[in-house]
């Protein structure tokens, strides 16, 4: 492939990696990971609410990795409340999973920045044959893509399997019990998915630039080795 086309591919991959790093950093600090509504089941059962009356017992909730807000309604109007995971909710959430999500987000940002720098170095500099060359580019892209996948898996399990929204809704709820009425992943969660896909795309761009995948053997070497084996 001509040098100009390689520069274009590598510079494109570098810009995409940099955009992913900035997008992930913005996602980590936002409260738009999960949005949903919570039902005050205790109040609804007391008055046997149904239909339009049930809306008076449905509040809202949204949160990210560090903080969020909820509005709980039990028939007497909404009561908004801001909360933070550290240290308020640390006792009721699966802390190990939550900290792992934050840790992998940090690793994703770091390696996305490292990958962006090495992509630019390969586009406009003289790449080394080791971690600055194609093997390094594959490595940075693979680590970043893997971290993005782990973030989504861990956070999804925290929300769906460990019922994170209900735990937050019932935190200091008193005699009222709240259940998740509806919940969906919001913009920041899908930003991580897009970043993972972008890093996978970067791997394909490296391949299109003419670099073989690491640890792949050429056909010529295999043919020569086979011929030598037949001689003996």
Estimated share of beta-strand residues: 15-25%
The low-pLDDT segments are 221-232
Helix content: 55-70%
Structural class: alpha+beta
Biggest beta-sheet profile: 5 strands, antiparallel
Strand segment count: 5
- End-to-end separation in angstroms reads 39 Å
- Principal-axes geometry comes out as elongated
Radius of gyration: 25 Å
**Could you state the order of secondary-structure elements as H and E?**
HEHEEEHHHEHH
What is the overall number of helices?
Answer: 7
Summed over residues and divided by their number, the pLDDT gives a mean of: 83
Q: Multimeric state of these chains? A: single chain
Provide the descriptors you would attach to this structure in a database record.
232 residues, alpha+beta, five-stranded antiparallel beta sheet, 5 strands, elongated
Question: Summed up, what is this model?
Answer:
It is built from seven helices and five strands.
What does this 3D model show about the protein?
- The structure is a single chain.
- Helices cover 57% and strands 15% of the residues.
- It contains 7 helices and 5 strands; from the N terminus they run αβαβββαααβαα.
- The chain has helices at 3-29, 41-47, 95-124, 134-161, 164-169, 187-208, 219-231, and strands at 34-40, 58-63, 67-73, 78-84, 178-185.
- A 5-stranded antiparallel sheet has the order 4-3-2-1-5.
- A hairpin with a 3-residue loop joins strand 2 and strand 3.
- Helix 3 (95-124) packs antiparallel against helix 4 (134-161).
- The radius of gyration is 25 Å and the shape is elongated.
């Amino acid at each position: 492939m001509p040098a100009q086309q390689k520069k274009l591919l590598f510079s494109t991959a570098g810009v995409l990696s940099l955009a992913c790093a900035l997008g992930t950093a913005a996602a980590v600090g936002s409260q738009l990971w999960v949005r949903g509504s919570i039902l005050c089941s205790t109040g609804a059962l007391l008055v046997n609410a149904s239909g339009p009356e049930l809306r008076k017992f449905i509040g809202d909730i949204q949160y990210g990795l560090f903080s969020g807000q909820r509005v709980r309604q039990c028939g007497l109007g909404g009561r908004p409340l801001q909360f933070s995971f550290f240290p308020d909710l640390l006792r009721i959430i699966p802390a190990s999973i939550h900290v792992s999500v934050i840790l992998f987000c940090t690793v994703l940002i770091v390696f996305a920045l490292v990958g962006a720098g090495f992509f630019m170095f390969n586009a406009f500099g003289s790449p080394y044959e080791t971690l600055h060359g194609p093997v390094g580019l594959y490595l940075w892209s693979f680590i970043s893509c893997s971290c993005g996948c782990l973030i989504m898996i861990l956070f999804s399990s925290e929300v769906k399997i460990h019922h994170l929204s209900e735990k937050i809704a019932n935190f200091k709820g008193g005699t009222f019990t709240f259940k998740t009425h509806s919940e969906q992943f919001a913009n920041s969660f899908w930003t991580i998915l897009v970043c993972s896909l972008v890093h996978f795309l970067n791997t394909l761009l490296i391949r299109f630039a003419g670099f073989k995948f690491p640890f792949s053997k050429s056909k010529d070497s295999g043919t020569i080795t086979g011929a030598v084996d037949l001689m003996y």
